[in-house]
Amino acid sequence: MPIRQGVDFPADETGRRSSTAFGRAVVADALRHVDPSAAAAAERETDWRRGYPRHFKALVETGLADDGAAGYELAEAGLASVQARIRYRRDDGEFTLAQAMMAAPGRSFDTIEVKGSERPETEVVLPYRGELLRGDALRRRLDAWVTAGVIEDSCAEAVREVIASPDWLDLSDQTLVAAGAGTEMGPVGAVLGWGGTVLALDLPRERVWQRVESIAAGGAGRLLAPVSGDVPGADLLSDLGGIAQWVLGFDGRLILGNYVYAPGGAYPLLAAAVDALGTHLRHHRNDTALAFLATPTDVYATPAAAVVHSRERYASRGVRSKLTAAVSGGRLMRPNYPCDEVPGLNDSLVPQQGPNYALAKRVHRWRATLTRRDGVVSFAVAPPTRTKSVTSNRLLAAAYAGAHLFDVEIFEPETASKLMALLLVHQLRKPRPATRAAWADEAVAAAHGGLWHTAYHPRTALPLAAVRGLVLPASRPASLASPSASPSGSSSPSPAAPPGPSSPSPTPPGPTPPGSSSPGPTPPGASSPGPTPPGGSSPGPTPPGGSSPGPTPPGGSSPGPTPPGGSSPSPTPPGSL
């Protein structure tokens, strides 16, 4: 039987390829030099699917050693482990990704082009709740978000600088290589609206490209995509060498943006593939920049402002919050930060998202950390966003509906994607040198939606938000920063309390355009989309025609469910974006 060629996990002595074994080994390798005992604990973990959060938290805690410089050691060790372990399978054997990138590609691509018909946008405009904010109105919104703890002040300051320098929006001097071009959260629409050029990478699925081409036609820029059949697109897991060759055929400075997503074990495989592509591009074009969107549902070291604000809110919590905590035996409404120590440690990991999701996102963070020392990288924590993949699940939609009761604002996709695109522009036009403490760089320009500033540990509060969201009628919640929003530090309403003027209920989310390839973050404490196979990865629902999880038609390239034990299918099907 012929093997399925492409990126895959290493095989053990029995030939089994396991995402669980891979993830556990990579985390242990990352920890080993700085904290051998933490590495040993990861290796001894027998229930990786449920126990992984404490080991990913240890990665951040350990990275704080040596005034934060240990974060660089962890990033180097973690990426070295990924590069050494991941395999590229071909008929003539198995190779590392670096070896595979040097070999002749198995497929070459032609190019299709779509030109926009509109005039380029020359002013910073942010869509927000039915309005287009610009100028002073946008500055007031940024100030309100900072006051409410929805974004860090450095995020607002970055956007203010772009507002003051609208010429920065003209990205005609560089080309965005968008891996995961169909995602809701990516900057493709914004960059094309500003008149930029995008090399679009996504799977060859007709509905994905209908959406992408529609966005391009309605923009002011130029979109180019690889094509080798009837439908544009390419598979990063099986066509990696050909994609690299195609991208390097274009002149000028490149920005490789990693916006891909896949369910289960395919996600860390894709993270490794795009990482190898970035390394290859930077080897041949040393001015290549990298760009990432970090998930807010992860563990981060946080600055003093977040810790102080959160502690103040917790100190002023109301009687009902205290009673809820007492009745639950301390399981609910625990403080976000139990002490005043700085940096704080915000643990917004969602266990149901699974270890494969966490590892893929950690690979992104590690690469951003190292690239910042010797190159240009755009990296910022993105807000929790009301994407279709989240809101199609009733419990997830409910948690998002009630999140504002705990000072967490959920963004609409059009707002989140444009905000993150503006941060991309700022970080490309005004790159910062790396600091000694890797964690401090990750905190810059964070737009976490309030998860860093909420009074309560997210996993102990947002389950109550889900209960409240289930009983609220459908209407849009007030902005946390508006006069009608619940005041910071107010007592949390009981789940069954009727909505009052200070806590309007949410609007049902609108559908995501077909072809979206990236789900939004899962709210802490909520269930992940769809059932998870025992020991497997956490799949989520798929937008129609998108490249997110879901059943794959015969011959399709989206992986199916992970079998028990956390192994990826063997042979691994080509991955989705």
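^ that was protein a. below is b, sequence first then the tokens
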Amino acid sequence: MKNKNIVCWLLLTSSSSVFAMQPLDDQSLSAATGQNGLTLGIQADKVKFNQVALIDTNGIASTSYNSKAGLVIAGNSTNPVPSIEFIKATVSTNPSFNIAIDTDAGAGKPFVNLAVTMGSDVNGIRLTPFSVYLAPNTSVSSPADYAVSSYAPKSIFSSGTTVNTGVKELVRSTGNLDINFVQTNKPRLNIQLGHAAQYVMVKFGGALQSICSAAAGCPITLVSDTTGASFGFKFAGTNAATGFLLDGFYAGVDPTGLTFGNTGVSSKFDASLNNVTLGNLATQSTTTFNNLPNGSMGSFGVTGASVTDFKMKVSGF
């Protein structure tokens, strides 16, 4: 970090005595710590949450659809309280991830750089079972609610995992979703805020070994009322030794929205939807297909696929 002063004042009042520590400039701090900037080591084996919501407060430009609504990630009957866990081989007090923070002002364009790396004994990240819901205005909060002295966060559930009237479940995960890392090349990201010298807000690096490594994949259902489309999702790098490389992938914000993509040709990957079933398994109809029971359509997937100069944009309207 350039051209900065870190000033630490220690005021000890005893009788009339006052003591002050001298300011440390960047050179002195570097000599004391062996580095520029700051490094944070964060230890958190598990992060639990009740509900996480993305809320549109005004709908769309229509007299019929201008109320607020939200997409909510929350628990389900399989797992009422979802969590994000760091997968470790053994119980450890080592940091789960590290953040190295520094600032610069190259060519008069200041920015802050945050380099995020995984802990030495972290092998992956696990998402425990969860569901994605669509919630109406009566089940989501808005900024106006926060100003009320008696404010209490709204919930999509009336009790337990029973949803309120109007709340619809869209996606259901009933098993752990494990994101496994390549141990010798763990995922990392470099975030720049301000005048990003790397030209995008976030650059990714490292490699993923797999997502849902079990043969059947992770059980997922696209919900439609009392039924839906169910399958087992699985993703892996085609080369088991190097995995799926994240180098070349990026994310950022431009005037029209959030962008995500990659530069050049990605490494190859295998992806599959296993045991795809539409509707309820074994359900029969006496008037359709000679009363044959409903069954799996089989599995669908790609092997050795890659993407070239992929770009996706997310924006509102």
